[in-house]
């Protein structure tokens, strides 16, 4: 889908910042008191762990894909190749 783990980490941090901003806004703009401000702040703040968990899961998937492609390259190189991936010539045999 094109979503990277770093995007989820940024969303988690943004959720923490939005939680604080919503709390201050609700506390200063609404006359409902601190209780409603607390509820809004907690509601948005609860998103952060989900974003961080999704970031960790995506990071694990990205790492698995990177390892898989490097193992695939190594297996394609074969056991007879040198360090540059060239297969030795048998012309002199």
TrEMBL record:
Residue segments, region Disordered: 69-93
Transmembrane segments: 7-25, 40-58
Keywords for this protein: Membrane, Transmembrane, Transmembrane helix
Protein name: Uncharacterized protein
